[in-house]
UniProtKB/TrEMBL annotation:
The name this protein goes by in its record: phosphoserine phosphatase
Gene Ontology terms: biological process: L-serine biosynthetic process
A GO term, aspect molecular function: L-phosphoserine phosphatase activity
Keyword Membrane: no
Keyword Lyase appears in the UniProt entry: no
Catalytic residues of the enzyme: 190 (nucleophile), 192 (proton donor)
Length: 405
């Protein structure tokens, strides 16, 4: 312990030199600066580079030479040749280590205004936290920014930024900035009004001429005002006598949520496993799983006799507790710790599942679900989930270009 402290003290006291370049980006600038520094036999302690609209900012932190003034003159001459600005500042020590309480804050806007981003930065400062780094995750169809933040309890930060997100009309996700954020390997997703647009039972009710009454019960159940199992039985009774062929017609009419195929395709490439769990019907979800390459699926089964729906379900109903149980079963089968699972849903029926997962995401959800979930998304694009996992739009596009879907 004493030896480590002595090393840290020596490191903190040693002279260092910060070289910063700004200018129009083009090939060779970074190489030219580093080549000049290389002639002095200096050690690189840190470096960072960013390009914004063709403007390069490069910072290099080095062990300081004995004669930094002559190096400064040499870099000044190089700046003139390259037509850039180079500053040299002498000091001591390395960058300060990031403080405890590390969080990744993802801010999503459609659009993302400067006022909104300023408000988010202000609330982070109010908590006493520091923004260590900002990077863009996506530029369209939404703008997504990721902040690396340190010095605040993630839960406290989540509460403050959730309130600011409502005021600014932004989606803001706060996650623990530790290693496990990069290790989520099982996605468990609701189906109706999440993976797909609309509710299958309402589409079936339309074929049966009972849409209005079924839709009203569905809305109450999704808000958590009715027991799901009882409401499902009542709604399925309205389908009695419907030809089973209506299931094929409904499946053919289903529209996936925008970005659904991109989300599944991208995460499958990265080795994630996917599951869908639904209070809907296996006659639909099994087909969806096969079409999209989804690994696991669980849903209720409609009873069909002689090619006709009987108005009953077969077996145990997949309700709110059943969805959480399914998530745990999928995690066990895939060998994934619960801490490395992501659950996505929109209705009260998803609450237990969202709570059980390592990250629970409310997607265009009812108010009761938005309030309870770890984070929420109010944009219609399901692939915005990727930004919460640290995957950028540019990385997705590059992967699609290399291996077309």
């Amino acid at each position: 312990m004493t030896e480590l402290s002595e090393v840290e003290t020596a490191s903190a006291d040693r002279p260092t030199l910060l070289v910063t370049l700004t200018g129009s980006d083009r090939p060779g600038l970074t190489s030219a600066v580093l080549s000049t520094l290389a002639t002095r036999g200096l050690d690189v302690i840190d470096a960072e580079q960013v390009v914004l609209r063709g403007r390069l900012v490069l910072g290099v932190l080095l062990s300081a030479p004995r004669d930094h003034k002559s190096l400064k003159e040499e870099l000044k001459a190089l700046a003139s040749v390259l037509d850039v600005d180079i500053s040299v500042k002498k000091g001591v020590g390395d960058n300060e280590p990031r403080r405890k309480g590390r969080s990744q804050v993802t801010v999503i806007g459609h659009p993302l205004s400067a006022a909104g981003l300023a408000a988010v930065a202000g609330r982070i400062a109010d908590t006493g936290a520091n923004i260590d780094r900002i990077s863009r995750m996506a530029r369209y169809p939404v703008t997504a920014m990721e902040f690396a933040v340190s010095g605040a309890d993630p839960e406290a930060l989540r509460t403050v930024l959730a309130q600011e997100g409502v005021r600014q009309g932004l989606d803001i996700a706060v996650q623990d900035g530790g290693l496990y954020r990069r290790a989520k390997r099982l996605i468990v997703m609701d189906v109706d009004s999440t993976l797909i647009q609309g509710e299958v039972i309402e589409m079936l009710a339309h074929h049966a001429g009972r849409l209005a009454e079924v839709a009203a019960v569905t809305e109450q159940a999704m808000r958590g005002e009715l027991d799901f199992a009882d409401s499902l039985r009542n709604r399925v009774e309205a389908l009695e006598g419907l030809p089973a062929s209506a299931l094929d017609e409904v499946y053919a009419a289903i529209e996936l949520a925008p970005g659904a195929r991109t989300l599944v395709r991208t995460l499958k490439r990265l080795g994630y496993q996917f599951a869908i769990v639904s209070g809907g019907f296996s006659q639909i979800t099994d087909k969806l799983a096969a079409e999209l390459g989804i690994d696991y699926a669980k849903a209720n089964e409609l009873e069909i006799v002689d090619g006709v729906l009987t108005g009953r379900v077969v077996g145990e109903i997949v309700d709110r507790p059943g969805k959480a149980t399914a998530l745990r079963q999928f995690a066990q089968r895939s060998g994934t710790p619960l801490s490395q699972t992501v659950a996505i849903g929109d209705g009260a029926n998803d609450l237990d599942m969202l709570a059980a997962a390592g990250l629970g995401v409310a997607f265009n959800a009812k108010p009761v679900v938005r309030a309870a979930a770890d984070t929420h998304l109010s944009v219609p694009y399901l692939d915005t989930i990727l930004y919460l996992l640290g995957i950028t739009r540019e990385e997705v596009e590059a992967a699609d270009a290399e291996t077309p879907a």
